[in-house]
Amino acid sequence: MTSTQELLNRLKQYVLSEAKAQYDAINEQWSQPLSIRVAKGWAIEGVSVISYQNHLLKLHCETNNSRFREGDLIVLHRGNPQNPYALHLELEYDGETELEASLMEGDELLIAAKPSGWIIDQDFMDLSQFYMDALNIVADSLRGRSTILPLLQNKLQSKVDYARYERTVEALADSGLNKSQIEAIALAYAADLLHLIQGPPGTGKTLTLAYLAKLLADDGQRVLVTGFTHRSINNALNKILDVDELIPVCKIGDCRRAEDFAGESYESFVESHFGDLGGGYVVGATPFALRSNRLSNVEFDVVLFDEASQITLPLAIMGMLGGDKYIFFGDENQLPPVSVFSAKSALQYSIFNYLAGRGNETMLNITYRLNDVLVNWPNKTFYHDELQPSPASATRRLKLSKDHSPWDFVLDPSSPAVFLDLCHYNTTVRSRNEADTVVEIILALLTHGVPPAEIAVVVPYRAQSRLIRSLLRRTLQDESVYTHIVVDTVERMQGQEREVVLVSFATSSLAFALQVAEFLFQPQRLNVAVTRPRTKLILVGSHHMFDAAESNDRDHAEIFSLLQSLINSCETITLPEGKLG
Q1: How do residues 295-331 score in pLDDT, each as one tens digit?
Q2: How far apart are CA 319 and CA 227, in angstroms?
Q3: Are residues 359 and 438 in the same domain?
Q4: Does residue 291 sit in the same domain as residue 221?
Q5: In degrees to the nearest 10, what's the CA dihedral of 290, 296, 297, 302?
Q6: 263 within some domain
Q7: Do residues 322 and 286 make contact, with C-beta atoms less than 8 angstroms apart?
Q8: pTM above threshold 0.70
C-alpha cells in the first residue's frame, strides 16, 4: 500500500507536471508566427475594442476562425502576448465577428488609448499554488491526517448507521423517487464519512443530490455543494430549490458565474450572513473558494461533490478540507479530468475513479432519458446490463410532422440510432462535407416541427463546431432559431440532453484517427456523446476513419473495436460522396 508521503509526493508531482506542461505548451504556441497561429485557430488578428463597461469588453474582428469558445482564457495584446501590459480576459460570448470578454487583469486605460490593432491569443492561468497549498495543509492538519488521507488510502472505512438508513428509506417511500435513488440517498445520509453515488446518463443524479441536501439541511447541517464547473454547481443548487424552495441556499463566488442560478449569490460568505442562521443551509462554491477570502475558514458538516468523475485528487482534497463527511456524485464511465497527458493518466487522478470499487457506492439504474434502443449500447458496454429505461422513456420515439423532407430516410423515428456514412476521406479536425450534411438534417428537423432547443450537435473538435455554427448562422439567419441549437464539444455537452443529437466525427483519415484515437474514441467520450439524446441519435462520419484499422498497439485495437461495436449497434445508411440520391 502506498505510504502517505508517497501519495502526497505523487500528487504534488502531478500538479507541477501539469502546470509545466501547460506553460510549455502555451509558450510554444505563442512562439509561432502570427500567421501560423491564426491559420491553426490559436489567435485572432485585427481586433478592435468597441466598448468597455463594467469590466466587459465588446470586441470586433473581420475574420474569426479560432478554436476559442465561451469560458476560455484569452490574452489581448498588440504583438507580444507576454508583454506585461497585455490584458488578460475571459471570453464570455463568441458571435464570430462580435466578441465579449470580461477583464480579469490589466490596465483598461490602454483600451481607450488604442482601440484598434489588437490580437487575441489563448491564455492560461497557473493554479498550481492553490493545489500545492491544499496538499500541504492536508498533510499538516488533524482533519487531513486523521480522516482525508486515511480515507484515500483505504485505511479508514466509512460506517453506515442502519437505523438512520431504514428511517430514511421509509421517509422517502412516497417521494416519487425510484428504488435505486432512495437506496443511494439513504446510504449516503446514513454514512458517517464517505459514500459514492454513480449516476449513469439520465438517471436523476442531480435530483438525488437535491433530496440528500434537503435531508441534511433539515437536520441542521451545513452543506457545501461543489464541483468542477460553475454550471454543475448552479444546476445542483437550482434543483435543491426545486425540491424545497424554503431551504436556505446561496452561491458564493464571482456573481457573473451565477447568472443561471435562480437563488441569491454573494461574493463572500460574510456578505451572505448565512453564518448567522440557526439551522441548516446549503452553500454552493468551487473548491478554490475555500482557499480564498470567499470561504476561508468557513466550516461545513458535509461536502457534496457533483461531476466528481472530472475532479482530480488534488482538487477533491481542496474541497474535502472544508468538511467532515464527503459524498461524491459521478460516473467513471463519463468524462475524466482534463489533462495535458494521456486519458489513462487523467483517469488515475479522478477522485471518483480512485474511490470506486471499494464497496461504499450505489449506482442509479433507471434512465429517464434514453429509450429502449438508445440505452442498449451504453448498457452492455459500460453498465453491466444493469441500466434500464423507465417505462415512459423506453417506448418514446421522435415525433415528426407530416411534412416531407429529403432526409426522412435518416430521420425515420422507427430507427432511433443511425450511422450516416458519407464515405469521404482525408479529413482531420474538420469536414465541410459533414458540416453541410448536419446543417441539411437540422433544416429537415425544423421543417418537421422539432424545436431548435431540442437539437444538439456534438463534435470532437472546436474547428468543426465553429464551421457548423457558421453555416447555421448563414443558412438560418434568424438569430432566435440558430442560437437555440447547441453545437459544441463533448466536454460542454456532459450533463445535457436533447430530443435529437447529431454527432459529427469530422475525422475520416485513418492515419490521423490512429494518431488521436486515445482522444477521439476514448470510451468515456463516446459514452457521453451518444447518451445525450432522448429519441434520436445520428452519427455522421465515414467508414474510412476506422475501416481496416491495423495497429500493433493493443490499446488502439481495443479502442477501434469499441467504435466498431457502437457503429454495429446503429442502422448504417451509406451515402456515397455525401449526396442524396
Answers
A1: 989 999 999 999 999 999 999 999 999 999 999 999 9
A2: 9
A3: no
A4: yes
A5: -30
A6: yes
A7: no
A8: yes
